[in-house]
């Protein structure tokens, strides 16, 4: 009897250890992207034993940038998403659009503008809907930071994984020269970094490298701020948006050569968070949804019909989308704030 009990005890321990180990190594479940019926035209992007499914015959909008408004309170001289009107969709339409995109395979939404915080309530409600109702893996915002408040973060911060804040220089005079605010940008930027930490939102920095800052040494400031990611874009000319004296902004005077961009990158690339993005990668690897819920084709005037009108799949047929560029620039990375996602073991 004694030996039977001991034997059963040992069996139970072996079972439990095995079971626990099985759980700790179990691949984290990912949402369905698309499961094609055959194996043709499929490629996999693999990371940590997980696969991202890409089907070349069908475009799957993994990550979408929704430019919900074109209005902005700043006047950056190189801006290519300048205010042509002040349209914004009713919240119900925007929610419906998010839901359609989710059904089509979207996993990450990024809210941008213009300045999205000029529509703070709309933004908060939509972020909440995307996280709470649609359970999107990642909800992020690109902002100039000037209008973000602690009150807003207290209410909606829990629905935001990443806040990307623009900062082109750690010398305020340069920011002013660029049009990035009127002299208080850095103060607000630093305050926001703190606020994001308090509210458990990943802090990311976006820098546009241009003629006024490409020689700047930002090492000390970046070390101090310690962002999760620091994306540095080479200033981009989009002919019909910011590339002539007929457009609202003329970014040609901000332009730098590839060598000048490289000079900046070489000075800063040792930071773990540093992600450079030259013009070659940037031009067509973002999937952009405009304020009318139409996809934009960068470099071409024409946009698609609204996804509410024709559906996501149909609209995507008219989009030139550089999927390879998206992967190349690390479009899939650790895009969800750990404690807000069951997917926190994914190291993208
Ligand atoms: S903050 Fe952004 S949207 Fe506003 S003007 Fe500058 S680049 Fe354009």
Automatic annotation (TrEMBL):
InterPro entries referenced in this protein's UniProt entry, alphabetically: Aldolase_TIM, Elp3/MiaA/NifB-like_rSAM, RSAD2/Viperin_antiviral, rSAM, rSAM_sf
Start and end residues of each Radical SAM core domain: 56-266
Transmembrane segments: none
Entry keyword annotation includes Mitochondrion: yes
Cofactor: [4Fe-4S] cluster
GO molecular function: 4 iron, 4 sulfur cluster binding; catalytic activity; metal ion binding
Secretion signal, residue range per the UniProt entry: 1-19
Keyword vocabulary terms for this entry: 4Fe-4S, Antiviral defense, Iron, Iron-sulfur, Metal-binding, Mitochondrion, S-adenosyl-L-methionine, Signal
Superkingdom in the source lineage: Eukaryota
GO BP, one annotated term: defense response to virus
Protein name: Radical SAM core domain-containing protein
Organism the protein comes from: Cladonia borealis
